[in-house]
Design brief:
With 287 residues, the protein is α/β, with parallel strands linked by helices. The chain has helices spanning 6-20, 105-117, 152-173, 205-216, 224-232, 241-254, and strands at 32-34, 38-40, 53-57, 77-81, 96-100, 124-128, 144-147, 179-182, 185-188, 193-196, 199-200, 222-223, 262-265, 269-272.
Length: 287
């Protein structure tokens, strides 16, 4: 089967993206393919969750759009490899693995069980047709199953759920993981406290969540829209100026010595900048 034209895929899912993410403005999607079949989806304007490293196992020739069209529309780093036992020799480090089980159910089941028995630690999501759902059961050793016709929001939600459950399991086995240490800042998720060089910060719940989120991803730049969705959620209808206000209050509570930990990237957003990291620490407030 030949590859579906890019225009056909976008025509199918682009209106759905606008409805599901609450953005009906006219924007053109951006899709960049790099060597080694590593693919990226839309620009950060649509990425309200973190980019995940995805491994897609399939014997279909072509890009991930052939197997799960919606995955190609999301901003995750996707690597495609053949669905063969030989990949066990050098499995890349990923956050989630997709198994193409649309055409050969016995082979897909055999490979998923082999992957689990050899200690693959990441969650596995099987891609199936509606007719193949009846063959799915606990013996497969998979974390979830999704139809190949699923829309972008459903694919995104399932990635978020399986990776989130995995992280909760890690924290349950090692409670110390709930304590985030970044530079001079110590954030304790159990007690909802944050300290700078032993000084406890008097933070509101949203200020705490904002500081924790940024500190968990030092150096990574997040737009106001991303922060709004990550901290305030999809049902929040306030403007992005809310983010600016909370950033300003957070910097004030960090004090003059540490306010530069939260840096502004002009015309883009905010990032958590470690001191002495070689990156610019200058704060330039956006108005």
């Amino acid at each position: 089967m030949g590859s579906a034209p890019k225009g056909a895929i976008l025509a199918t899912f682009w209106p759905q993206l606008g409805r599901e993410y609450g953005d009906t403005r006219s924007r053109k999607p951006r899709r960049v393919a790099a060597r080694g079949r590593v693919e990226r989806g839309f620009s950060h304007e649509y990425s309200f969750t973190l980019m995940a490293r995805i491994l897609l196992l399939t014997n279909t020739q072509g890009a991930s759009a052939e197997v799960l069209p919606s995955l190609a529309l999301l901003q995750h780093q996707v690597r495609v490899m053949p669905a063969e036992a030989s990949i066990l020799v050098d499995v890349p480090e990923v956050d989630c693995l997709f198994m193409d089980a649309r055409r050969d159910l016995p082979a897909a089941k055999s490979l998923t069980r082999l992957l689990k028995s050899t200690g693959i630690d990441c969650p596995i999501i099987c891609i199936a047709t509606e007719g193949g759902l009846s063959a799915m059961n606990a013996d497969w050793g998979i974390s979830d199953v999704i139809l190949d016709t699923a829309g972008p929001a459903e694919v995104e939600a399932r990635i978020r759920l399986v990776t989130g459950r995995k992280e909760l399991e890690r924290v349950a086995t090692d409670p110390s993981l709930r304590e985030i240490r970044t530079g001079d800042i110590v954030i304790d998720e159990n007690s909802y406290t944050a300290k700078v060089r032993g000084r406890t910060l008097d933070l509101t719940f949203k200020e705490f969540e904002l500081l924790k989120f940024l500190a968990q991803h030092p150096g990574r730049v997040f737009t106001r829209a991303q922060l709004l969705q990550e901290i305030w959620g999809y049902d929040y209808f306030g403007g992005t100026r809310t983010v600016d206000v909370h950033i300003r209050r957070l910097r004030s509570k960090l004090g003059p010595e540490f306010e530069a930990l939260i840096g502004t990237v002009r015309n883009v957003g905010y990032r958590f900048t470690l001191p002495n990291s070689g990156k610019e620490n200058t704060i330039s407030e956006l108005v």
